[in-house]
Amino acid sequence: MTAAAEVETARAYYDSADADHFYATVWGGEDIHIGLYETDDEVIADASRRTVVYLASLCDPRLKLGARLLDMGSGYCGAARYIAGEFNVSVTALNLSGVENERARALNARAGLAERIDVQDGSIEDLPYADESYDVVWSQDAILHTSRRERVIAEGFRVLKPGGVFVFTDPMQSDGCPDGVLNPILERIHLSSLGSPGFYLDAARRCGFADAHFNDMTPQLIRHYTRVLEETEKQATVLEKTVSREYLQRMKAGLKRWIEGGHAGHLAWGAFRLAKE
């Protein structure tokens, strides 16, 4: 699949009514990313918001009045609203799904933050922004959707100001993952590969980042997909009013594969912090 086809496949998926209603219902329509759980039965939205707060802590002290942040793959702008409201910074929210972006703009307006968050339709592979124009680049569980992952890291480096940081999370394969074992997962999400912690750290150094750190939190991936599966089954009656049974069946099968892959040690997840001198 070509890079352009990958982008269009991801866009078509997230633009679908099934995906939009599923994520808005199960995640609560705010932070549709992997959460940081304190207990195995914690509310998904609370754990997902904790991830946002944790990533924001990695940006300190760059999140301050007058700062500019680029959120690559911004989803429903839950992180953008937290950052804009908590730190009074300007956020550019770049996202490929027009459906998600419409929902995000409505949520931003409802929160009184529309003037601080500029939601833009577009791909994270080719950023339409000037060199050294952002203090922080941010991404949550979005880079996996492109095979040009090093290109995304290079673009993040390009648009960062000196002294800026790039923080991101991404579902990955583990370093040393055996060939072929993730094929059922890759086929489900229409990808030929995943990144790995080692790949991203090496790519960051090749792209020019002075410091590159990874905090491995893989058990949270297993917890998160387990909680999503539990809620999908628990809320089946509600979900079936707006989401097709076929979609829900595929989703449950896919979630089980992610959980199995995590337990087998074939998957990884955590937070990266890349610093530009």
Give an account of the 3D structure.
The structure is a single chain. By secondary structure, this protein is α/β, with parallel strands linked by helices. It has a single domain, classed as Vaccinia Virus protein VP39 (Rossmann fold, 3-Layer(aba) Sandwich). It is 47% helix and 18% strand. The protein is built from 11 helices and 9 strands. It has helices at 3-15, 17-26, 44-59, 78-87, 98-110, 149-159, 183-188, 197-207, 218-234, 236-239, 245-263; strands spanning 68-72, 90-95, 117-121, 134-140, 160-169, 172-173, 211-216, 267-268, 270-275. It has a 7-stranded mixed β-sheet with strand order 3-2-1-4-5-9-7, with helices on both faces. A two-stranded antiparallel ribbon has the order 6-8. Helix 6 links the parallel strand 4 and strand 5 (160-169). Helix 6 packs across helix 8 (197-207). The protein is globular, with a radius of gyration of 18 Å. The N and C termini lie far apart (36 Å).
Key features of this structure:
277 residues; 18% strand; two-stranded antiparallel ribbon; Rossmann fold; alpha/beta
CATH superfamily: Vaccinia Virus protein VP39
**Shape assignment:** globular
Topology-level CATH name? Rossmann fold
Number of strands: 9
Radius of gyration: 18 Å
Spatially, the strands of the biggest sheet line up as 3-2-1-4-5-9-7
> In the residues, how many domains can be counted?
1
Largest sheet: 7 strands, mixed
Number of helical segments? 11
> Which class in CATH terms?
Alpha Beta
Can you give the mean pLDDT? Answer: 94
Distance between the termini: 36 Å
Strand residues, percent: 15-25%
Order of helices and strands: HHHEHEHEEHEEHHEHHHEE
Low-confidence residue ranges: none
